[in-house]
Each structure stands twice: as structure tokens, then as C-alpha cells.
Fold each of these.
Amino acid sequence: PTIYVITPTYARLVQKAELTRLSQTFLHVPQLHWILVEDAPSPTPLVRDFLASSGLTYTHLHVLTPKDKKLQEGDPGWLKPRGVEQRNEALRWLRETAAAAGGKGPPPENAVVYFADDDNTYSLQLFEEMRYTQRVSVWPVGLVGGMRFERPVVQDGKVVRFHTGWRPGRPFPIDMAGFAVSLKLLLANPKARFDGDAQMGFLESSLLQNLVTIEGLEPKADMCTKVLVWHTRTEKPKMKREEALVKQGIGSDPNVEV
Ligand code: UGA
Ligand code: MN
């Protein structure tokens, strides 16, 4: 089955580095279709050229997060959810494309959808775990939620609760990186999407609660005992020297893409 990987992304100093790391992981994954959604008013040349030479099968979309939904300089990182409009735009594209195909041709019936942020670290094994998802599959996520890892707790092959340090009573206390959904299930529930107004920590639940119950979750990665994805975050590079040189008129050549 094809895996549709949905990635929101936005322009910043580390963007090309993040996309390079991500794409070079994806190049090792068979039957992967990357849906890269820019948080931008129009597609940027950097991302367009990057994708064109990536060697991947991809779809390039864009939607700008409205200003009132976007974090402002100085806001705490948890105030507003990120990547919401972009993931919903990808879901819209998948549904539209499926409808246009009218059952014939792509997207294939048994395809799987995964939401992969551009800064996380993904093991190749993760994609083989999710590939045979019937409805919604789940697994542990490393280095997230202020913990070594979070995970669904499995008993007799079923998810019975979640190991998490924060608000375990959420409908689905799972990070975005910790689940995949079958395309069929998303097409059968045409209204299911992410709710950007959901309370902090409830973004994943806002999609999943319209698709599945805890009993219906399919535990992967050896019954959720293996960490195959890490919620890494990239440090913001310091530009003190650059700014000093720019003032002297000898900053790094702006024509060199970084
Ligand atoms: C955590 C979760 O892992 C995310 O899935 C969730 O969207 C996020 O919290 C949230 O609270 O909304 P975190 O590392 O804090 O992740 O978020 P980022 O990695 O900064 O952003 C998630 C995705 O959205 C990334 O792919 C990023 O490139 C994208 N993004 C971020 C945008 O498209 N626009 C932005 O302005 C910021
Ligand atoms: Mn992140």
C-alpha cells in the first residue's frame, strides 16, 4: 500500500536543512507519496526547486495560516497549534483527488496517511509498521511531552490506556507523530479534520475522535514497546556574527541558498 505523508512546513533559516533530512529518509521508503504543504501565500521557489530535484513522488500545496491563528513573536509556543490549516488542506486534496478518480486509479483503496512534521526523526522501520493499517494504528513517540517517551499501553493485544505525563484524560493523548490513518477511513468520514480552535493538547484528538475509539486502535512497533520516531526539535541558529558583518557590508552572499 501507498503511504501518503503529510508535512506542514514554513520558511525559516533551517527549512532546507529540515527538508533535506526528511526527504533523504523518505527516499528509502517504497511507495511513499509526500504531500508537502507550505504555510505561505503562494508556493516558494526554494521549496518548488527542492521538491523537483528530490527524486520523490510528491504533491506541493500551500495555504497561509491566518494572522490571528499564528503565533506572534514572544508568544509561548503552546498558545496556538501549528500546521493545522496545512494538514487540513492536504486532507482536502486527498478527498478531492479520490473523488476525481471515481474509484479508478489513485489514490489506492488501501493507502495509509501519516502526519510527519518537518523537524522530527523517523526510523525506516516505522513506515513498514504503519503500512498495513486497517483503520488507525498507533505506536510510541520518543522525547515528547517532557518524557523519555509516551506510548499507548497494550494488554492482550489491545490499547487499554496511555502512558503520558500530562492530561491522560484527553480522548487521544497521542502526539501527531504517533499514529497513522487509513485513507479509506478518512474518505468514509468526509468531515473529519483538525480543529485549530481545539484546546491545547487536543489537536490530535479533534481528528481521531471522529474516526475511531480506543478499542479500535491497532498497536504497532511490537505492541508499542519500540520507539521508532522521535519528537526532535531543531535549535534556532544564532545570527549575531552575520548581523555584525551585514552592518559592515560584508554579510554572507544573499544569492547563496541556505
Ligand atoms: C507539537 C506536535 O508534535 C505537532 O504535531 C503539533 O502541531 C504542535 O505541537 C502544535 O502544538 O501545534 P512542535 O514541535 O511544538 O510540535 O511544533 P512544530 O514542529 O514547530 O510545528 C509542527 C509543524 O507545523 C511542523 O512541520 C512545522 O514546519 C509546521 N509549522 C510550524 C507551520 O507550518 N507554520 C508555522 O508557523 C509553524
Ligand atoms: Mn516539531
Amino acid sequence: QSSEPWREFDRSLVYLADLESGLHYLLRVELASHSTLEGAELQVFKDFVTLVAKLYPGGGSVVKLMETLSDWLLTLPLPKIPYQAVLDLVDNKMRISGAYLGAELRWVGCQSSRAGLRGYPCSLWTLFHVLTVQHDARPDALDNTGLEADSAPVLQVMRRYIRTFFGCQECGRHFEAAAASGLKSVHNPEEQLLWLWQQHNAVNTRLAGSLSEDPLFPKAPWPSASVCPSCHEERNGVHVWNRDGVLLFLRRHYGAANLSPRYAA
Ligand code: FAD
């Protein structure tokens, strides 16, 4: 990663290249260690694919590919699927027109100053922030998927994906503990996107100064006051977040209009 040329980017934007690289890694690398998918694992994977097919913004070639994968998984009568069959679909061996997911890692907002940092975990956070904001903008998008009855469907799918497939097991344990105690208080899409923001900040605080920190991207409460003055306020001399300011900022930052196609396939 660090041997690649640095890609200039704007920290106020979210890059589709990071989302696509993350999905490429998830589907072609992380999942590849599971030679077959069955039972609970298969269900978690199906729900993840459905979620992305319904909520990934833009309606482009990635959505088309995820829709194809989702339709195939949902109509398949098999209780057990070889990973190779999933890969053939991801590689679009059926040549469905307009369906495509690039097969390379091209980190932009998630690139690092040194190999082994950032990249995939950064893209996964980014993807789920985007999905929570999309669900808030289009709550009906999950109708008739089986996910719509849940009050925090994006977080529940994320929780199950992380627990089942995410390579960092320590992360999985931490996230599961936070979800088990915290998701009960999430009742709607707005609370869902705020919960993920807050949880991500809790992780930033825990990891500040740790070995996984890239010095170019120090872990700190986000967004900073210089990026979002209206997210911060002082009450009785104590710093507090301004809920409305944070909501507005998250909706804009992770909203479809702020996704840059630069460097994307
Ligand atoms: P990341 O934390 O990955 O953030 C990516 C980008 O998101 C930032 O550059 C910023 O633009 C934006 N951002 C930052 N904070 C917020 C926020 N609060 N809300 C919205 N956007 C924000 N690593 C461990 O070592 N131990 C763990 O227990 C652990 N748990 C994890 C749990 C999950 C679910 C995930 C996805 C990752 C976890 N990681 C853990 C990895 C870690 O959180 C970072 O992803 C990784 O260290 C890379 O950090 P980063 O600098 O790219 O920033």
C-alpha cells in the first residue's frame, strides 16, 4: 500500500473508491477463507448483500452486481453454497450487463502512510456510516426484505457481519458487547446513525495512541470543532456535542451528494 503513489484527496469528501475497494476485499479476500457458506453464516451473508443492494447509493454497476448476487442467493434452494459460486458471480462470469465490481484495492480517504494501517477497516466504517445515512434518507428501501421490522436493521446486519466474518476478532468482541448493551436504545433511523457515530468515537478514544494509529490520521473525537463548529458546544464550562449539529453534519458528510467518483473504477 505505502509503495503506491499517494492519491491526493479532500478530507471533506467520501470516496466511492474506498467503498468499492472495501467491498472487493470483503467479497474476494475476507469471505474466501470460508470454503462453503451454510446455516447462520449463509443467512448473515444474504442479509449483508440485501442491505448493500438496497441502500448503496448511486444505482451504478456495484448496485447492479449486489442486486444480482442478492436475487441469486434468495432464489437458491440450496442450504449450502460453495464460496467459489459466490466468487463466480462477483466476477460476473454470467456477463450480466452493467454489473461490475473492480478487483483491486485503491484506497483514497482510507490510504495510509505505512503498509498495514487503515485500508479495509476504515472502509468498513465508511460503508456502514453511508448505509445508516441512506436508510435515514430512504427508510422504505428495506420494505419486503425481511429486515424492515427491525428498529436498527443496518446496525444489526453490521453486528452480525462483524461477529461472523470480520478478520479482527478483538474488534468483533468489542463491537458485539457494545451492540448487546446499546442497540436496545435505538428506535429509528436517526438514532441508528447517531449510535454508529458515537460507537465509532468510543473506539477512536480507546485506540488513540495505539499501534494501529496512523500518525497522519490521529484517532480523536470526530468531527473536530474546526471541521464542524456547530457540532460542539460548551455547557457550564463542559464540552458537549450538539445533537442537531452532529445529525446535520453526518447526513451531509455521508450523504449521496458528498460521494466522490474520483479514482473509482
Ligand atoms: P477509522 O476509525 O477506520 O475511521 C475511518 C474514517 O471515518 C476516518 O478517517 C474519519 O474520516 C471517519 N470517522 C472517524 N470517526 C468517526 C465517527 N465517530 N463517526 C463517523 N465517521 C468517523 N481496531 C482495534 O485495534 N481494536 C478494536 O477493538 C477495533 N474495533 C473495530 C470495530 C469495528 C466495527 C471496525 C469496523 C473496526 C474496528 N477496529 C478496531 C479498527 C479501527 O477502528 C480502525 O478502523 C483502524 O484502526 C483504521 O483507523 P483509521 O485511522 O483508518 O480510522
